[in-house]
Records
---
Amino acid sequence: MKVISFNPDDKETGFTAMPDIETLIARNIDPDKTITERVEAIISDVKTNGDKALFDFAERFDGVKLEKLFIGAGEIRELASAIGEEQKSAIDTAYHNIRLFHESQYKKEDKIETMPGVTCWRDSRPIEKVGLYIPGGSAVLPSTFLMLGIPARIAGCREIIVCSPPQKDGGINCFLAYVATLLDIDRIYLCGGAQAVAAMAFGTESIAKADKIFGPGNQYVTRAKTIIQSTSQTAIDMPAGPSEVLVIADESSVPAFVAADLLAQAEHGPDSQAVLVSNAEEVINEIIEKLKQQLELLPRKDIAAKALANSYAVLTDDLREAMDFSNRYAPEHLILATDQWRDLISSISNAGSVFLGNLTPESAGDYASGTNHTLPTSAYARSYSGVSLDSFLKKITFQHITAEGVRNIAPTVEVLAELEGLQAHKNAMAVRRTMSYEDNY
């Protein structure tokens, strides 16, 4: 394998021998603990000072001197009324598709009789209080609100806490407000970054403590989520940080499409990453040329260019080697820009979400195809799944044993308890076996 940087400032313009793969695929790490230390200080401030810390951080980080920490139901409805019909229609379509896909994920499980008289089953219960973090900053993301709020509503979560950074006028935009009306959300808290995660993890005077926090963000948000997971009784969906895409392209790909897909990730933010993997050097060169042409036309050109400086292309001997590299990289988004995508599906072991063929851009999944766009990044696709309906549910196991079941299972339980030296466990079974009772217990 060989690699070439996308960085326009690199003096090295040709392919070079592949460096150590683990070093190449590492991203969004914090080697000197600078981000960790800053996030820990923010979390400590919120834990100690509550709402006051949130007001201070809004002024410091967002440049807004807030009069209150939330937008209420009346203001939400008023803001939502300003949305245009074309935009409303687009959000409605996305809402329909996302809801349809996530509703299909609910499955009632069967009861299983593991042996005569011993019945076991599993049932779902919603997580009671969930916190949704909707990123702001350089781009406001109503799509993320849909992706998190829809499965939370389907699951039946009793309380949904929503935090999003304030705009410069101290409010939110009409698109977030309209999504809030679709989801029957009557309050949005005006706080972002690590401080929003801390507020939902520990609670403040205004914001209730959540049982689980959802949502992507920058490295500070991601670091905050990983810290609070071990320091509070609040769970997280996954480490979902700066966005990334890996595109596998061969001679059957369309270079202009691939370049557009790479730039779609690059424009998210300067710490995003776009990786191209191909078995054909001429394909890579053509895509890079298209990349340069399309970059010049983007309103967010400067942001995309910074992301491309952290991105690269990999030349492999064949598609099998390309898939091997992809599985080691474990991308948030994987695009198979090849007419051989059907043959490659079985080779995928690590990916957040996969986009098949030349006509399936990653942006479809970001907005409206129906799948969830809150996905594991930074190689966490090796061990995490993306957000789904299950993310908002707890699976509780049940068992019921009849008199016949006691007779059947008691010998096994008693022997295993005795060999582990747990006499009380043995007795709990033995006392039932030796007493006379009715099945209607």
---
Amino acid sequence: MRKNSIKILLAFVFLFVGMLALPTGAKAADHYTIGTGPTFMPFQIQDNQGTYTGKHPGLEIEIFKAIAKKEHFTYTFKPMELTANITALEGNQTDGILAALMITPERKDKIDFSDSYLSVGLTLAAPTNSKIKSWKDLKGKTIAVKAGSTSEAYAESVQKKYGFNLRRFKDSNTEFNDVLVGNTVAAVDSTATVEYAIKNKMKLHLVGKAYNKNPVAFGVKKGTHKKLLRQFNAGLKAIKADGTYNKIIETYLGKHSTVTGSTKIDRSFIGLLRDNATSFLDGIKMTVEITIVAIILATVIGVILGIMGVFPNKALRAISTTYAFIFRSIPVMVLAFFVYIGIPNLTGQKIPLFVAGVATITLENSAYTASFVRGGINAVPKGQMEAARACGLSYLTAMRQIVLPQAVRIMVPSFINQFIIALKGTSVLSAIGVAELTQQGTIIIAKNMEGFKVWLLIAVMYLILIGILTWLSNAVKKHYKLAD
């Protein structure tokens, strides 16, 4: 029995490690993985299916597609928030970054940039009825910026001069909505992005003219992918020569541009649900898939570690206790970045997003599962084990036939509750770009700027999912006649 248990544990360990080391698949020559923003208007615009295949996929996306066509290379876009994008580039998860990245001296220390394809200015945006007319009006007040962006850097550079405070957000939409609800008085962002938000009925206005213009370019990790940079620069030159570049710029930034991410937006709850049904369903599917796979793996690992935690062997108990302590102590978001960015940075091997998401939720939940499995076993009176041993049963046989059947009744509610915790925990994975329900909501909101309505719809979807699991939990408790 002991040998079989060890074999099962080793087999699972090898399987789990193998998942982390899975290659992303054989890549053809000149195929690149490009990190980009999920939706940063008007630079990237995902359609309702979460892809960049719509009529207007965004200024940067169209430029890159035209360049790839000229230079005969293929690509896969990997949408992430800006800070995750930069981290992924440093961790070798992506080959390049296309995220309205302004060229700054600080970034040039880490990134090799292509020729610039645009100059982007920043602007101060305030509500239409605001009394903020200039930077001087910001003294003692708080403004919103996007974390890791050039707008944040600029705001920091003039913060002391004008005496305001900063509040940082991960995307422009959240930043703008914070201003509109009055938590902050103004926001600093790309002029083009603010103008796009105004087109989408956001009640903002530009405070003054654009300033602090910086060149925007495509980037690769410093010292790598020189061929990709050469291809990008050659393709950019070619599309400028044949007029393609000017057409793209006019479409998105021209005086008569009507690009708003969607030709018509039904802003009612039913309309938003209907128009974005595919994105919502894809988000729910991804959330449920990650939860199911992760909870199965977490249960297997947790049960093994929980049993190890009550073994007479001190080494096995130490392994169980240490594992539970480590992965219960690390915040889920930190764990997600470590799995998705940190491990590839150490190994040089990319990890698919789905695998990274499953690994993150598995590691956290297996630690909690190990703890309540150990607690469930310890809750069984010690006399049960002693009596079994006195009858001549071995430790493992007594554990399997006498102790565990009683412990399972104690642990069943905890297993169901852990399923619920795992499902809610998947929302954190949006930080690394996993297209689960929360990430899909962020993308949808960035297209239509209907933050309140979309988040309410997503909250209802989570309530339904959690409600189903709660009903299941109650049914199981009733079946086994268990109390909370």
---
Amino acid sequence: MTDAPTLTLFNSLTRKLEPFVPVHPGEARVYTCGPTVYNYPHIGNMRAYVFADVLGRTLSYKGYRLTHVINITDVGHLTDDADAGEDKMEKMARAQAQSIWDIAAHYTQAYWADIAALNIRQPAKWSIATDYVPQMIAFAEKIADRHCYELESGLYFDVSTVADYGRLARAVTEEGESRIEAVEGKRNAADFAIWRKTPSGEKRQMEWDLPWGRGAPGWHLECSVMSGDLLGFPFDIHTGGIDHREIHHPNEIAQNQAFCCTNGLDIPANSGVKVWMHNNFLVERSGKMSKSSGEFLRLQLLIDKGYHPLGYRMMCLQAHYRSELEFSWEGLAAALVRLKRMIMAAERLAGVEAGDAGHPKLAPMLEAFDTAIGEDLNTAVALTALEDALAAKKVDAGAKRAVVERMDAVLGLGLFATSRTTLRLLPKAAVITEAEIEDVLLRRKDARAQKDFATSDALRDELAAKGVEVMDGDPLGWEWKLG
């Protein structure tokens, strides 16, 4: 453990900041709700995984033996997160005239590429929903008699059979109830399907036989089964976007209570999990966060426009995970500039071997970092501590590198694995190559050295006509950027 192992986290179930006390001493078991692989994730989706990555890195930094699981949903998630509509995977497979397995494989690989681009660590396990159908069937069979009832459309969970249903969402509001599918015969508005029968005369690409008919599992069932199977109930932390707090996670909790035969939620571990954590939304004013908008904001679009993915990671870290984060291109550019400054400072430590991190001039910065990251992952303040360490003067270079490495291991910016040149991406629409830009700049430098300012200005105008802005005297030392 570090000298300051204390970690306080906000528990969405209790609505309180709580000291982290693991279920199993020295261990931390974390489950993160992963993507439904029917389409590319947008950058708002990816904020959840940056947050979960920082959480996992923090637990490792604090000395815990981490087991982190992220699921891949390839069946069962309906077109409305509130348990209504048709299966997202089946719908996309039909629209693209492909097998559902091919759809799942393609979008899983795309998601994993985004994970790598954002320098998100690999979890201990990627759990694929269709690999756990036998366990889902066994889970459903165990809870069916006491907690479920059958309708023509499937097997439904009766939320009145568990205590404190909806506490995570602070009760199911009228607005929340309006988002839940209205099904003839449901006992309670909030009751949800844990198994959906294939309608008579139809055939799904993914379906299995159960005592309640041929069909497919519900989305909520999947996460309960995979988290419990891989981490054991109760485990330490369950993460997800704030949109899951209203319906999906309360339904998981109800299933966990039924399976574990636990009582009310005054004891958080009765939910199957000690701490529930949720990141807030990424807000984008133009409406391009929705996947129905066509050119929605996915990470590849940022790359195509010349923004390195680590600039987006920096943007996420600049806000607290529980705060809304507004996306703008200007904000992304500013985050990228901030990252470039850090990398410039880190480059001065290239080739230096990390030494003892206990240098007295660096100790206050490391303490400030420990405190910030330990107070519910306050990455915004932690970034300032990192910048202070990078800027520290008259300190041993080996000690400085050790402190910066320790901080960067939590924030995941890859300061010693990334260079200024790799951060500079050519936009997809660029009409000039980097080599061509450098050639013109070289000729321009020669002209300026010879005081031929007319030629210098002409070459600058030539670059400007192709979208290249030359930044003479820029403090970052960057000579150009593409607009």
